[in-house]
Amino acid sequence: MRGGGSYLKSGVFRRLFLPYVLIITLFVTGFCGWYLYSYRSNYREMARETCWQRANALCTRLDRHLLTAQALCNAMNSSESVRELYQKAYIENGTVDSMQLYRAISELKRIKGTSGSLDVYSILLGFHEDNRLYAPGTVISLNTAIAGLDRTPWIGVASAAELLALRGETNITLNKRFLIYADAYSGRVGGSAKGVSLVLIDLSALDEILDDARQSFSGAELSRYSEVLDAVGTLDGPGEIFEVASLVGGGIRYRLQLAPDALAVPFRMAALTPVLGMALLGAAFIFIAYRYTRSRYRPIGELSRMVEREPGGADEMGDILKSIADLIGERNGYRERMITISPYASQGALHQLLNGSVRQAQMEVLREEQFWELRRSCFAVGIVNLAALGPRAASEQRRLDARALAAHACQAFANEERAVACIPRDISTLVVVVNSDDAAEIENVFYDMLKRIEEALDDAQIAVTIGVSAPRTELERLRDACDEAERALGMMLTGGRGSVYFEDKDVEAARRDYEFPRDAQRRITAGLREGSLADLNAFMDSLWEANFHRAALTPEATRQLVDELHSAISGALRDVSEQSTTHVRVERAPQPATIEEIFDYYRGLLAEAMRTCQSEVMGEGNPAALEQEICDYINANLMNPDLSLAGVADHFGVSGKLVGSVCKAAFGKTYLQYVRDCQIHEAARLLEQTDLSLEEIAGRCGFANLLTFRRNFKAVMNMNPSDFRK
Fold first, then answer.
1. Looking at beta carbons, which pairs linking 187-190 to residues 24 or more positions away fall under 8 Å?
2. 256 forms bridges with which residues in the sheet?
3. In 309-395, which residue ranges form alpha helices assigned H by DSSP?
4. pTM over 0.90, yes/no
5. Tens digit of each residue's pLDDT (9 = 90 or more) over 509-563
6. Taking a C-beta distance cutoff of 8 angstroms, is the pair 363, 448 a contact?
7. Contact assessment for residue 120 and residue 89, using Cβ atoms and an 8 Å cutoff
């Protein structure tokens, strides 16, 4: 019974070996089934969550247009110039003078400009029983008087003539179809309706949003109560329907249906790697079980062989003694293997604990004191920050040397009663864990550690700051302690560098309110445009004087002040760059830092921005030539389906707002309106002069699909392409 086949012929061997095979097979099969089921479920859930986020993003894009329209209607309702026009003409029955009319329509032009959206085509205002509509910069005479709306606010896709029941009107603004937001005009809050205000939003904005929905959804529709305002695709398929309520209210809802393949789980070989690995592992375990069973069966086989001999054999007693010795030896070897435990990788485990990635099973091993560094009852985490204050200390090698010296100084505090572990986090930061049975002693260690590190570095150009967590006893809270130390290190914002900080829960002694001028963005913008570095520095000096000269702010109030300063500088740079081809990107001040370092950073940023703006003003750019190049580029690529506002801006290295302003000035239309009108006019020419199919015409005129072509053609020409050809 020496060969493998001979062992398998034994019934006793098979009874010992087959249970292992059965258990391993069931485990491998169960794991593979569970993994494939979990993979499918998790993938579908992640795909569904992604689709839901995409649905909310699409709805938010459309809500942004509706909320803008709502704000424009409110602005018209509260305008004093419009109220004076209504009072003079319809309450006092007087004659409106030209100056009063000019102020009213100029006010409408200003209100439209405040939207900041190129998709708002126009705004209209009319009074009940009047035969005029007031628009930005003009007055539209009507054939019939204006009647009130049945319900307000009214949201839908229609033309102004259809909505107001105007017959026989030829004005293109009144007959063109838009996404219209209409509300009552009362002249004051809570007043009765005296007229109607309309905001006309270009349908291309709605079409782009609905077309984007086709990437993940088979159908999408915009409805108000039970009335469908616009739709793309169909909602009759088997996919799940997402329904989202609009922030505008008024019964506006969005409904989107998932495409059939949106939640399909793809077949990927990489996903089967764990299954193949488990199968190989199972085969290895079966082989190990075979060898193990054979080693256990060998003495039994020897005894069985002896029993099969004839009695009185010369070697009988020796064989029996040998078999018994084999049994004892195997048992002892098994016992030795069971009590041998591999040492735990302490450094790697500490990394995992600080990152919060230790599993429960690994945590149990740590509790059994197999991790020597955290055996004692209390621990605290300190984050040591080494800041380079001079050019020599800023070199990478110098900072690495400083970090190594700091780690060596920290390790010197380790002894029999206290354990110290140092983990480098980045080139200038160390995470230090101190483990001891004395909680009060732990805090004192970090003060001594600061002095020892400064003595070891002996370099005034490197500032050492330590943020320390409160002592803790639960090993699971090591990650929380690391976060607390990070927050404590942030106290240097108001306290400065070169200290040890603990998170301060009581900050009553410091001010919680801060002063920030309302006209900060305007002052910064003026300083940048005028090239006055003195004005910019004076603004920063006044901000410092108002907040930090008399009493310190709390760290939280200081962070809020810094956020407002960053926002004001960002807004000023946007204002300056709207008519500029050169842009300065504003990044937040690097953290952690003191408030003095943050103010110095923004002073330098403003100086750089001012120099950039002034260099352009002095002639480094040629705005007129650039505007002509933009117009020529758009006209040359009108029928390119890949042409987009962002693409034109990227091509010339300017902002999208600048491209939009150039189009408005050169063509009298927004970018989208101009491109679409040109494409539709070319399509109308091809319909009249050629026999090309609608699909071919749509492709030649830059439309991605026939559905988008038909919708845009009808919006401009007020009829379908097939009807136009007839």
1. 187/77, 187/82, 187/83, 187/86, 188/77, 188/78, 188/83, 189/77, 189/78
2. 220, 242
3. 316-339, 346-355, 360-367
4. no
5. 566 678 888 888 888 888 887 777 888 888 888 888 888 776 677 888 888 888 8
6. no
7. no
CA geometry: angle 578, 582, 585, nearest 5 deg: 85
Q: 604-632, pLDDT tens digit by residue?
A: 888 887 777 665 544 444 567 778 888 98
- Listed as own residue / partner, the contacts of 489-493 with beta carbons closer than 8 Å and 24 or more positions apart are 489/383, 489/385, 489/465, 489/592, 490/555, 490/591, 490/592, 491/467, 491/555, 492/385, 492/465, 492/467, 492/592, 492/593, 492/594, 493/555, 493/558, 493/559, 493/592, 493/593, 493/594, 493/595, 493/598
Structure tokens, 213: 């929905």
Residue 701 CB burial class (10 angstroms; 0-12, 13-18, ≥19): buried
Mean pLDDT (the chain) is 77
CA distance 384 to 429: 6
The beta-carbon contacts of 641-648 under 8 Å, at least 24 apart in sequence, are 641/699, 641/702, 641/703, 641/704, 643/675, 643/702, 645/671, 645/672
Helix/strand/coil percentages in the chain, nearest 5 = 55, 15, 30
Q: Cα–Cα distances in Å, from 262 out to 47, 213, 218, 470?
A: 7, 12, 9, 49
Contacts of 219 (CB under 8 A, 6+ apart): 231, 232, 233, 234, 235, 236, 237, 256, 257
E strand or H helix at 304, and its extent?
Answer: helix 273-308
Q: What tokens does 102 get?
A: 């000019």
